[in-house]
Design brief:
Layout: E1 2-10, H1 14-21, E2 34-39, E3 44-51, E4 54-66, E5 70-78, E6 81-92, E7 95-105, H2 109-116, H3 119-138
Antiparallel strand pairs: 1-7, 2-3, 3-4, 4-5, 5-6, 6-7
Length: 154
């Protein structure tokens, strides 16, 4: 399993950065290779990705979510195995540090090659830069979900 970590500082308040990140269906606007994310309910999303010409579909479950602080998830079915957490830290009134830490288990030949060549790491770093551009250019979030998910919630 490979660990990927990237941090960006965005020029928006923590509430705005967090709210935008909860808009999972907007991820294709800044995540390379993500074709679609469908939110199934408050805790589950269905993803369609295409990396190196290989399409993958998988479902994720949010296992811990605390507004303005963090969102943690894991895959629960499909072609991809990963888990991660995105954290939000207030820097000041108008700046937020967003840190993404993911553990990814490459499953197919294309993913294993992408992992060995550093492509997965570069893609995540690029996604975080694009998130920064996306949220700062918009000047505000497209929505937000302020609910809480605690580890062990059913």
């Amino acid at each position: 399993m490979s660990k990927v970590k990237e941090t960006v500082e965005v020029e928006v308040p923590v509430r705005t950065a967090y709210n935008q990140w909860t808009q999972f269906e907007e991820f294709p606007n800044f995540m390379e290779g993500v074709e679609e994310v469908r939110q199934l309910d408050d805790r589950h999303n269905h993803w369609t990705t295409k990396i190196g010409g290989v399409r993958r579909e998988f479902d994720t479950e949010i296992i811990d979510q605390l507004p303005d602080e963090r969102i943690a998830w894991r895959t629960v079915s499909g072609d991809t195995q990963q888990k991660g957490v995105v954290s939000f830290q207030r820097v000041d009134e108008t700046h937020t540090r967003v840190e993404l830490v993911m553990d990814v288990e490459p499953t197919g030949l294309a993913e294993k090659a992408a992992d060995m060549t550093g492509t997965i790491d570069r893609r995540v770093k690029g996604d975080m830069r694009r998130f920064k551009e996306y949220i700062e250019t918009r000047g505000g979030e497209t929505g937000g979900w302020r609910g809480r998910v605690r580890p062990g919630d059913v």
